[in-house]
Design brief:
One of its GO terms (molecular function) is high-affinity sulfate:proton symporter activity. With about 270 residues, this protein is mostly helical. It is built from ten helices and no strands.
Length: about 270
């Protein structure tokens, strides 16, 4: 199986694990539901007031003819809502993991325990691990915001905005998801986002094989409730695979639980 297929396979394993455990599905689905409600509510409020906001942002158009003024403000209102949707799509998983951090940590630990995996630890206590999770989630949300702001204006360029930009948006969002759902393993090793990115980049075909389907499935309403916890399980397996700490189940090169070290080979 090629690297891309191996990445997709990890997501499939995560989906299988979640669907056979109603408790894990419930634990992982509730935070995803809450973050979905927050984002939909925010976008809905923005859409409702987008006309007023567009008028407030364009006082210079008061002297224009009614037709041109209406066109400008309609385009601006649509752009504001579209930007909010883009921002929500790239920050959804980070927001979900921020809301449901303890639940997803439990899912990750259970996955490792059931499969005999152990990534080791740098000795940080639980409060420090919680802080690392919150810090990384906030940083990834910020990266998502900056990426959305960078891509958004190019979406209005003819041809480019309808072809290249959507593909770049999917790849960018997918990569953020990979950084997010592999976090529980890497955070225990004291690996920040920069080191995590460099490690995953060396296995980018495998990572994108996992992350692109995850991102696309997250765009389907309601599907996120199953996809996010499945991606957390798959992210644990993916992290162990790229670290070389593969063991348990049908993963090759098993490393007995407790024998892994923080300096595992890549």
């Amino acid at each position: 199986m090629n690297d891309t297929g191996l990445g997709a396979r990890e997501l499939g394993k995560g989906l299988f694990d979640i669907l056979r455990s109603p408790r894990m599905l419930l634990l992982g689905g509730v935070p995803a539901l809450l973050s979905s409600l927050v984002l939909f509510a925010g976008i809905g409020v923005l859409a409702w007031f987008s006309g007023d906001l567009a008028s407030w942002m364009t006082p210079f158009a008061e002297g224009w003819s009614a037709w041109w003024r209406g066109v400008l403000r309609a385009v601006l209102a649509c752009a504001l809502v579209a930007g909010a949707v883009l921002l929500g799509s790239v920050s959804f998983v980070a927001l979900t993991l921020l809301i449901g951090g303890p639940f997803y940590d439990y899912i990750a630990e259970r996955t490792e325990r059931e499969r005999g995996l152990d990534s080791g630890s740098d000795g940080a206590g639980q409060p420090r691990l919680v802080w690392r999770g919150v810090r990384d989630a906030l940083r990834l949300v910020l990266i998502g915001v900056l990426g959305a702001l960078l891509l958004f204006p190019f979406g209005f360029v003819p041809v480019l905005g309808q072809t290249v930009v959507p593909v770049c948006g999917v790849l960018f969002g997918a990569w953020l998801i990979a950084l997010e759902v592999t976090g529980p393993v890497f955070q225990r090793l004291g690996m920040g986002i920069g080191r995590r990115h460099r490690l995953l980049w060396r296995h980018r075909r495998k990572v994108l094989g996992f992350a692109v389907p995850t991102y696309l499935l997250c765009l389907i309403p309601v599907a996120q409730l199953v996809v996010i916890p499945s991606a957390v399980v798959g992210g644990v397996l993916l992290a162990h695979r790229v670290l070389g700490h593969e063991g348990g189940g049908d993963l090759p090169g098993a490393v007995p639980k407790g024998s892994a070290t923080p300096g595992g080979s890549t």
